[in-house]
Amino acid sequence: MDLILFIIFATIAVACGISLVVQKHPIGSALSLIGVMGSLAVLYLLLGAEFIAAVQLIVYAGAIMVLFVFVIMLLNAGEETIKGRSWPSRLLGIPLLTVFLGLLAYLLQRMGPSMGTVTFGAFNVGAKEIGRSLFNHYLLPFEVTSVLVLIAILGAIVLARKEIDKCLN
Amino acid sequence: MNFFLISLIKTGIVAGVFMTTLAYLQWIERKVLAHIQSRVGPYRVGPHGLLQPLADVVKLMTKEGFVPSHVNLFFYILAPFLAVFFALISICLIPFGPSVEIFGVRTDLGLADINVGVLFVLAISSVGVYGIALGGWASNNKYSLMGGLRSSAQMISYELPMAIALVSPMLILNDLSLRTIVNEQAGYYLGVIPRWSIFQMPFPQVFSFLIFLISAFAETNRVPFDLPEAENELVGGFHTEYSSLNFAAFFMAEYANMITVTCLATVLFLGGWHPLWPVEYGSDFVPVLLMLGGSAVLLFHGLIQPVKGRPWDRLTMPAAGLVFGAIALVFLVPVLKPILMPIFWFVAKAGVLLFIFIWIRGTLPRFRYDQLMNFTWKFLFPVAIVNLLITAFAVALQGPKN
Prior knowledge:
The structure holds 2 protein chains of 2 kinds. Chain A has a domain at about 1-80: Four Helix Bundle (Hemerythrin (Met), subunit A) (Up-down Bundle). Chain A contains 6 helices and no strands. In chain A, helix 1 (about 1-20) packs antiparallel against helix 2 (about 25-45) and helix 2 runs antiparallel to helix 3. Chain A is an all-alpha fold. In chain B, helix 1 (about 1-35) crosses helix 10. In chain B, a hairpin with a 2-residue loop joins strand 1 and strand 2 (about 105-110). Chain B is built from 14 helices and 4 strands. By secondary structure, chain B is mainly alpha-helical. The model of chain B has no long low-confidence stretch (mean pLDDT about 80). Chain B folds into 2 domains: about 1-60; about 65-275 and about 335-400, no CATH class. In chain B, the strands form 2 sheets. Chain B has a two-stranded antiparallel sheet with strand order 1-2. A two-stranded antiparallel ribbon of chain B has the order 3-4. Classes of the chains: A mainly alpha, B mainly alpha. The interface of A and B includes residues 34, 62, 67 and 70 of A.
């Protein structure tokens, strides 16, 4: 049962990932990205990490992608027109992709046996354990990340304020 | 396989009841609004317009599904599906009652109980905005687009105070599973005051309940926050270009969201299926008395003092009165009591909240758009955070539970 679900949703994730690149319209790409994130959430769920799955949906599909879609709609971005690609990209594209894939496969195969594989339902921890480890073990990275986010917010406000001041003067 | 079979039966029952409630909620809304505005509301189809939802469904189904030109066909068709899917799915997380024994099978009243239930409901409601936003965008109509944009901006903004308002009761009740949350609210202070979240010490969650309710109005696009479909500004808003069943899907989604949100408020703040006062003081007889009272009023107006100019009332009102009386008797059957009582209290609380939704629609005018945004960011959001801080301090001072 787990394996069947895994195969279904892994396929959907990969298909959406490909569709994200291939789609000509930005809204189509954005929706494909939502598909990727939704199926990733299901994969987390299969591993038993319900909290992470819910947070993945809330943060990525619910907040970030809504903003993406919002901006795309607001700018009313039209369909992409495909221009002729430059000759280095045409020449090197497929060989480079093959090299990267080969490298990735080699590394995975080398590291695979030593790291072991994950079983379904392996991360069966609740929100309490996650919270506890977040505020005991990983307190410093957590706080540093929050400061980072705060700086980003302040930066956004400063940038926006500059525009408004310019408009007012 | 037994589990599978039981789940299938439960899903069937919940889906059937949910759909019927959806259809009749609209009838109730029209009736209540009509009486608020001194009208009678739907009256022609069936007695007191009771068959009106059925007639509406037939009307919507037989209408021509018109697709305007220049729409983005794929997203145009996808949008109502998304809206109705995300609106209907979260009902499966709501617990309606405790675990009961039916025909020797022990089962929970409610479909699924996952240990991060609250987060999951939040996740689904935050994804639900795509249906409306996409519908507005794909229609290729500037009014629809404005409606879709307004709705996504509004839903993102109001999700924050809503989520923060939800955190405070979870701090007090100390769990994320909806079933455990309801169980934590069992019992009474001084034997009378229920330990629901809005009354529970150390810090009663009245403010977060109000914040949640206000945000719920905005999340479901109801008056006074129905900016996405403000008809004097945007024609019909995001569903202007939709007709027939596609339009019905958006309509259903709105009412389904209303029901889900009231159920969630009942579970989180109003103690789910726990009665208002203890069974020792006779809370079990409330539904019986209510139903008998309704039956008496109907019989009186049907047989003894009929309303003038409505001759058919002589027939329909006593019949309805007898039905009410029969329902009252059902609540007295000892075998059915453990199943019906929790469901009665749950439905009563959710019903009162739904009535408030309709009442406010009949009372309040619409916000202006800048007022709407100022209200959430400059008032609701800070209040929610202050409420969360006070709750956290109170919980910390009280020390760990158990």
